[in-house]
Amino acid sequence: MKILIAGAGSVGRSIARELISHGHQVTLMDRAPDAMRIASVPDADWQLADACDPGSLADAGAGDCDVVVSATGDDKVNLVVSLLAKTEYGVPRTVARVNNPKNEWLFDDTWGVDVAVSTPRIIRPSWRRPSASARWCQCSPSTNPAHSCTS
Fold this sequence. Notes:
single chain; Rossmann fold; about 20% strand
């Protein structure tokens, strides 16, 4: 698959490495020159450009992509990129990073988001109900009735 990732920070680069290791063709795009750490993901195509600019997305081949991932640290950017990918380029699948949990409600098909990834939402269930293999707390309700980490 051909995948465009907007945001070449640590999250975007990590996603790119994983996708490339599974044989996908990846383009990383970021507007910040200091994000251009090409040696960290040498098999990706790199674009120094603003992903909120339709012309930049076109130059990066958004119209030919199977997936666009918006992985920047800015929720507004991630929403705009997803919307442009869907409406202007007909990208079949969009994935957007949610940085602020208060903005989760925005990340839906109205804004062109197929999959919203919110780290707080992913982590929240794991601390509420720890698995037997990954216990974070060794106390029990019998030793501390006010503490409910094992419930």
